[in-house]
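Consider this pair:
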Amino acid sequence: MIDLGRAIKAAATTGKVVYGVQQAEKAVNSGSAKMVIYADNCPSEFLRSGNHSIKVVKFEGTNMELGALCGKPFSVSALAVIDKGTSNILSL
């Protein structure tokens, strides 16, 4: 099984990832997102619903934990993977 944390870190460092609910929703609507990952306490009903043509994964942790995992000094409620880089995140 793939380690979600490691996959997120790899995608964040080697690929292209956008952070935040608004950016993630924008990426989904524009069709540029390949996958969305949201935190347990993500406020976006749109992202949580999963009614999209892309894969949506729930991160079992808070937005603070997801932000720390991404190496950001702020909370991240959601992120969209635009380009996976060297990560294997899209095979989750």
Remarks:
- DSSP finds four helices and four strands in the chain.
- Helices lie at 4-14, 21-30, 45-49, 63-69.
- The mean pLDDT is 94.
